[in-house]
Structures are given as structure tokens and as C-alpha cells.
Design brief:
Length: about 270
């Protein structure tokens, strides 16, 4: 079976630049999914769906035929978001009456689409069992096999750089004054680096609303003076939240925050 690999973060660009040939069908264009996909683990699914008269997948019709390593609800949730942003190359007004069956693989790199076939009749579909857990069992560990999509970091607040200032000493020669100014700037850079840079490893909870719980459990810090700043930066991060069976859930996970030192005058990395 021939597979085309599309990382989640670049799938749209790849599909737009190079149409994806499917048996009897071609994906003409894919836009960015309105609801992004989280981090995936290795798994696969076969899905069934219809196209509407505008050659767009009818996401309401999406059903799951088979799965390996992912829940039917999780596979359907991902398929709906990806296919909902795609447009097939189909003659205007043509309707694929009995739908299409597509093979999909998921892994840490993203999503791979396999062959797509027209079918004579809708195949038997897996039931989408509700995902219920006792309230005290949440948040789940991000590594729990029931978690189909793990959190994926989107962005964090930046740490403001220092406002570098220097003073020219009166009565000094130009060379002495310039040397003093550079020394002043280097001192300010060193002070900023001491209070803001390093690597911090912490256990966090990413909530279903994509935010981090305020309680950050620091496991290690390469720079104790910057621990508070780096912890606050982790708290500021927004994420694509985790999902289990297609439902948003909070999870516990380990996060790493790294801020590299700023270079001073005449320094290079």
C-alpha cells in the first residue's frame, strides 16, 4: 500500500503544493484545520465518508471502519478535523453515492493518508462508545494509552529583554569612554542572563481549555536564580489540549523550558 506522509504542522502546505492522488479521487486543496491536531502516537484507522455536491467531505457522515492503537472516537475526531479542511477534485454536481473509504496512519510525525476507494455500499462501522471516567481519575497521565492526542505546545510569552543603557564618563578619552560603555552593557546582559536563562524541567497539568494549571512542580533547574522566571514562562504557555475518544481532557505531563543566554557586545554564539 502506498502512503503519503504529511506532518500535522505542514500537511496543509504539502497538500496545497502537491495534489494527493486517491483511487478515483484527488484532493485538490486543504486549508488549515480550524481545530488543530495534538501530538499523536503510532496508530492507524480506516474511515468511511461521503462527499457533498461541492466535492467537500461531509464530516457529519464520517464513520470508522477499523482502528489499531487508537479509539474509534479519537480516529473520527482527527479525521473530521482534517477532512473538513479539504476539497476534492470532482466534476461539479457529481455525487459519490455510497461514499469513500480511506486508510490513515498516525505517528509522532503527523498523519499519513493511504489509498482511497469508492465503495458499493456503506461498510459496517465501529460504535463510538462514550468516554466516561470517575472525576477523581482526572487528569490522566499524558502517556496513558487512552489518550489519543497528547498536548502540543503552541506559544509562550516571551521574557522581555533588558533595556541596555550606558553612560559616558566625563574627562575620559574616547577609547576609555567606549570601553566603559561596553562594560556597562555587558554587565546588564550578564545580570539579565543570570535571572532569566537556563533549562527547567517541571511536571505540569495542561487543562482542557489549553491553559496550564498554576501549580508547576519543578523537577530540576540548571539555574536556580531563574527558576521563578522559567516557571512563570511555562505557566504562560498555550497548548493544543489532549483528547481521549475525541473528548478534551486535562492531562499530567513533563515539560521542558529552555531560554538561551543573550550575547553581549563582541560575543557570538
Amino acid at each position: 500500500m502506498s502512503m503519503r506522509h504529511c506532518p500535522v504542522v505542514t500537511a496543509v502546505a504539502l497538500l496545497a503544493a502537491m495534489p494527493l492522488a486517491l483511487r478515483g479521487q484527488t484532493i485538490k486543496k486543504c486549508d488549515e484545520p480550524k481545530v488543530p491536531i495534538g501530538a499523536l502516537h503510532q496508530s492507524s484507522a480506516t474511515i468511511w465518508y461521503r462527499l457533498d455536491k461541492d466535492a467537500r467531505p461531509d464530516t457529519g457522515s464520517v464513520g470508522v471502519v477499523t482502528t489499531t492503537g487508537i479509539s474509534p472516537g479519537g480516529a473520527r475526531s482527527i479525521a473530521v478535523r482534517i477532512l473538513g479542511a479539504c476539497h476534492f477534485d470532482l466534476a461539479k454536481g457529481t455525487i459519490v453515492a455510497n461514499g469513500l473509504v480511506t486508510q490513515i496512519q498516525f505517528d509522532t510525525g503527523g498523519v499519513s493518508f493511504g489509498t482511497t476507494d469508492r465503495v458499493e455500499a456503506a461498510p459496517p462501522l465501529l460504535s463510538l462508545d462514550p468516554f466516561t471516567l470517575p472525576p477523581d481519575s482526572l487528569p490522566l497521565p499524558a502517556t496513558d494509552p487512552r489518550v489519543d492526542e497528547r498536548p502540543r505546545m503552541l506559544k509562550c510569552q516571551t521574557i522581555p529583554p533588558p533595556s541596555l543603557r550606558s553612560t559616558m564618563s566625563s574627562g575620559s578619552s574616547r577609547a576609555q569612554a567606549e570601553a566603559q560603555a561596553l562594560a556597562d552593557i555587558q554587565r546588564q546582559v550578564n545580570d539579565w542572563n543570570r535571572m532569566n536563562t537556563g533549562q527547567l524541567v517541571a511536571d505540569i497539568v495542561v487543562r482542557s481549555d489549553a491553559k496550564v494549571e498554576p501549580a508547576v512542580n519543578v523537577k530540576s533547574s540548571s539555574n536556580p536564580a531563574a527558576t521563578s522566571t522559567l516557571s512563570n514562562r511555562i505557566r504562560s504557555c498555550s497548548w493544543i489540549p489532549a483528547r481521549a475518544h475525541g473528548m478534551l481532557i486535562p492531562v499530567r505531563m513533563q515539560a521542558v523550558m529552555v531560554v538561551m543566554p543573550m550575547m553581549g557586545p563582541g560575543q557570538s554564539q
